[in-house]
Amino acid sequence: MLSRVADSCYWMSRYIERAETSARVLDVNIQLELDNEDQLGGRIRQQWEPILATLLDQKLFHHIHKSFSADAVMDFITFEKSHPNSILSCITLVRENARTVREQISSEMWELLNRLYLYLRSEAARAAHKESPIDFYRSLVDSLHAFQGTTDATMTHGEGWQFLQAGKFIERADSSSRVLDLKYHLLLPTGEQVGGHVDITQWNAVLRSCSAMEAYFKIFHGRVTSWNVAEFLILHDTFPRSIRFCVDALDQALHSISETDRGHFKNEAERLSGMLRSTLDFTTVDSIFKTGLHEYLDQIQARLNDISLALADEYFSL
Amino acid sequence: MDRPALELKRTLAEQTCLNQGITFTVYSGDEGTERIMPFDLVPRIIPADEWRHIERGLEQRLRALNLFLHDIYHDQRIVKEGLIPLEIIRTAKHYRPELVGMDVPHGIYIHICGSDMIRDSDGRYLVLEDNGRCPSGVSYMLENRQAMKRVFPKLFRRHPVRAIDSYPQELLAALRHVAPHGNPDPTVVVLTPGIYNSAYFEHSFLARAMGIEIVVSQDLIVKDAVVYMKTTKGLKQVDVIYRRVDDDFLDPTVFRKDSVLGVPGIVNAYREGNVNLANALGTGVADDKVIYYFVPAMIKFYLGEDPILPNVETYLSAVHSDRKYILENLENLVVKAANESGGYGMMIGPQASRKEIACFRAAIEADPRSYIAQPVIKLSRSPCYVDGSLEGRHVDLRPYILMGESIKIIPGGLTRVAMRKGSLVVNSSQGGGSKDTWVLDDEEARC
User: Fold this and answer.
1) pTM of the predicted model, to two decimals?
2) Local structure of B278: helix, strand or coil
3) Cα(B193)–Cα(A103) distance, rounded to whole angstroms?
4) Per the CB < 8 Å rule, is B204 touching A103?
């Protein structure tokens, strides 16, 4: 497959996942805001600023918006064209990449993306967002899930598909680490205890951002603690948004691309992904908290970034 | 069918185009740069015997054009025998002296030709111009048919319409046939300028339909006069390039130095015979509207036959007596720059302002070689669905002719429509639309 095409598949997939993460985080935050109205009592900033921190977009936001409001943050993350990580920008990039690999992906995938792109740019999208942001983000996530299903059901599971997988899982691992880190940025209101009501609501929100609530409760029977949530979202072996699961899937995709057996490596990207995978296989939540959750997640993000650079070096820049 | 029902069908067809991204790009404005080509629901119908005549004429024409191109890059017999002045060939904008003496596989220069045709007031088919470089629009021909089948499935069961969907396979067969060194299993690719090119949709459409890679210049690299594409598994040799990039932009080491679309060294690889290009380099000579004037003479000269399809009557301002006539009758003639296309560089005398006429007069006097003139042909009209009723609109026809092992012509072609009432300009960049073209089979309608 052409290097440029592989590059486009990889990034197209990352941007789709990035758009989905933004939609999830916003959806949950709106709900959190509604839940906490009494406690927050006008401290809108406390509720919304961490979102910007998680998505690394604070500076640009304050450059564009002089005043702070929930609507401004939502608009910025959803529709702002000058913001390269806004949902609209991501989907625009996805479509642009998809256009250049039009002959690799199925017509069904293309049409779904193209429709989504045309919709997001329309007045109808803004009206729907205004009417009910929660419904808007949910249906957006639904569309993106439909895209994943369409991809799996209509595209040959060959090299192009493997690059899509690699992009999807590396971005998802990164997203899960950022969502988990969101809690680090969410300050507890004065007087609130760790393990208290607000603390638990916030951890619930983190779980919900990852669609992990139901799966989590099956294991931990309704008890929400920071350790358990971190363990679940970082180390669970079969939950599809846990970091360990994503890194494993990434490693699998990389090995399929190079046709190397798991546990061996032919290039730097595989060596790094294999190392991260086995580290996650043998890590305990105690050691994570010993390092410090925030610091640990930072390290994960840096290692994912190294894998991405090595991947580009191996396949995209000939 | 009543009006709301028809309107619904039209909206359905247009929505399908937009969702599928069947668009072309217009080079102005900001966001609205992707447009769908307006689509007319009423098919144009060509009876079987009429089509046979067109087919014979086009085949004859393409054989002559290929012999002409071979001749001017080799012995130049046509010049030596006095039919075309050497000066005209030498000054043709797309003449490539670099190619003199070079042999191309099977002597085929124009592998894909799109000749634009019109009908005059007597119903005769005339050739208006030949497109021997990168004729575009074939994807619209194919998509128009798909749209019609979706919207009016019953019509196709009632009428013996000849199928056109084999075009991509025929194209691939022609491209494989001309592989260097007779390679029986060549790697064929489509070379596109990229997603911002107005015809990108088509490039990608054809690559998909043929099941081959679509590449941009950065995907290709030349080493030791061999062209490779960069893949995730390393370099892979490329044998035939269906290139949708103009000669000028193909190789910055030979042609335009500022081209970022080009592949350095590709022309050298081509000259060495390690890669073939379709269409060949230098075919643009045949698109020159002054050379067009000589096509009927070429047919006689190379084939010893009478032309089956006539040209539109044409005056050359390079010829003294013609120039005098042109300058005296500017307001009644259509004047065209010899090397422009897409409806640019053209003046329709009866519709032109005095200022425009003065402009063209000055241009012709300054550079007579670069202009031709033709009488205003009343382009035949075809019924179109406009605002709820059927109205006549001017149309032309661009059939697609392929030359590989033999010449293949897809029955039909792209019928372009001047959507504005009274307009004679059918180019998509100038607001033209299109409609499906039905060539009927001989058998009676299967009612």
Assistant:
1) 0.82
2) strand
3) 16
4) yes
Q: Which of B200, B214, B231 sits opposite A3 (nearest CB)?
A: B231
Quote the CA–CA distance of B377 and B118 in Å, as a whole number.
Answer: 9
3-state DSSP call for residue B7? Answer: helix
SS3 state at A126: helix
Closest residue to A111, CB basis, from B19, B213, B218: B19
Can you tell me whether residue B2 is helix, strand or coil?
A: coil
Distance set, CA B412 to CA B2, B70, B143, B439, B445 (Å): 28, 28, 13, 6, 18
Asked if residue B216 lies in contact with residue B194, where contact means CB atoms within 8 angstroms, the answer is yes
For residue B21, list chain A residues with Cβ-Cβ distance below 8 A. 99, 102, 110-111, 114
Task: Give the sheet arrangement for strand B234-237, strand by strand.
Answer: B220-223, B226-231, B234-237
To the nearest whole angstrom, how far is the Cα of B173 from the nearest Cα of chain A? 19
DSSP-derived pairing of the beta strands B226-231 and B234-237: antiparallel
User: What is the interface pTM, i.e. ipTM, of the complex?
Assistant: 0.78
Domain ranges of chain B: 166-278, 315-375
> Would you give the DSSP letter of residue B377?
-
Among the partner-chain residues B19, B208, B216, the one whose CB lies closest to the CB of A115 is: B19
Integer Cα distance of B77 and B67 in angstroms:
11
**Tokens encoding A284:** 């305990």
Contact between residue B275 and residue B269 where contact means Cβ atoms under 8 Å apart: yes
Q: Which CATH number fits domain B166-278: 3.10.20.90, 3.40.50.720, 3.40.50.11290, 3.40.50.300?
A: 3.40.50.11290
Which tens digits make up the pLDDT trace of A66-80?
Answer: 888 888 999 999 999
End-to-end CA distance of chain A: 13
- Per DSSP, chain A holds a count of helices (H) and strands (E) of 17, 0
Q: What is the DSSP string of B215-262?
A: E-GGGEEEETTEEEEEETTEEEE--EEEE-S-HHHH-TTTS-TT-SS-
User: Tokens 């422009």 appear where?
Assistant: B340
Both structure tokens of A204? 């619930």
The answer to whether B226 touches B237, Cβ cutoff 8 Å, is yes
Q: Which residue of A has its CA nearest to B15?
A: A115
Q: Which of B232, B235, B242, B263 to mutate to test the interface with A (most CBs of A within 10 A)?
A: B232
Query: Tokens 């619209």 identify what position?
Result: B140
pLDDT in tens, A152-207: 999 999 999 999 999 999 999 999 999 898 887 776 667 777 778 888 888 888 89
Inspect the interface and report whether the beta carbons of A257 and B232 lie closer than 8 Å: yes
How far is the alpha carbon of A273 from chain B, nearest alpha carbon, in Å?
A: 18
Per-residue burial over B197-218, b = 16 or more CB atoms within 10 Å of its CB, e = otherwise? bbbbbbbbbbbbbbebbbbbbe
Q: Which CATH architecture has domain B315-375?
A: 2-Layer Sandwich (3.30)
The verdict on B19 touching A (C-beta cutoff 8 Å) is yes
The model's pLDDT over B181-190, given as tens digits with 9 standing for 90+, comes to 989 999 999 9
Interface check for B263 against chain A (CB to CB < 8 A): the answer is: no
Neighbours of A211 (CB within 10 A): 15
Coil, strand or helix at A238: coil
Q: Quote the minimal CA–CA distance from B196 to chain A in Å.
A: 10
Element (H, E) at B186: none
- Check residues A150 and B19 and name the one with the higher pLDDT: A150
- Bridge partners (DSSP) of residue B398 are B414
Residues B199 and A184: their CA atoms lie apart, in Å, by 50
Mark out the alpha helices in B180-222 (DSSP H runs).
Answer: 200-210
Q: How far apart are CA A49 and CA A30, in angstroms?
A: 13
**pLDDT for the residue numbered B447:** 42
> DSSP label at A104?
T
Q: Which of A4, A81, A99, A103 to mutate to test the interface with B (most CBs of B within 10 A)?
A: A103
Nearest chain A residue to B209 by CA distance is A103
